[in-house]
# Entry
Amino acid sequence: MIFDLHTHSTASDGSLAPQELLSRAAANGVTCLSVTDHDTVDAYATLDNSSCPGVTVVPGIELSTNWAGRNIHIVGLNIDPNNNDLVNGIRQQKLARLQRAEKIAARLEKKGLDNPLEEVTKLANGANIGRPHFAQYLVNKGIVADFRQAFQKYLGNGKAGDVRQFWSPMEDIIEWILAAGGTAVLAHPAHYKLTNTRLRLLTEDFISAGGQALEIVSGIQTKQLTDKMMRLCDDLQLMASCGSDFHTPGNSWSEVGKFTPLPANCRPVWENW
# Structure
């Protein structure tokens, strides 16, 4: 069985519509799928599982927060998308995303770019605006060659587009997930580029705030990294989660349903559902 519990659709910064994502997951042998769009559950308004009866859909979301000056993502799995606390929290996050987009656009204008917010808003097409939309804008304008260069020059850590101050606190994020009956998962912990000591501190703070699981596997990764995440998970007695972090077809390291297997001795997050 393949559990892909971290994917994105056009409701946030993915390139496939929710139904297209579900169909692709089914074609790739996924048996349990969660669409975890950034700060929104809009995908579930249109997702129809009847066309892919072999895939169980577990409602999810990926919420943004801060820790020690870094952007951190918390995935909520097996949530009730209509829970009032979660809905109100999403409303706060959407406002934060808009304020953040305005701030990023203003900073990029100071770098000589001409009114990026208008075109980025069109690219988002009603979805929550994220840095990948700004990256696409930069590529379309010929300012950078690809997304990697966009983040290296304009959007990555410490660059003009690295805006962090608008997100709700981690404690609030996790409280919304728990109120919605969900499981709070610290997403892709290796992506934050923390030392071992600081990663452990982050994870301990996550647990203190009510966090329950660690995303041990995020896309294709080395055995060394998987073993490291597994040890941290075991040491702190967390459940384990996994996913592709799929955004768009063509990225071999993050294709839906195609990722490094979860170690057999982990306690999978889905055991509690």
In short: Residues 11 and 42 are 6 Å apart (CA to CA).
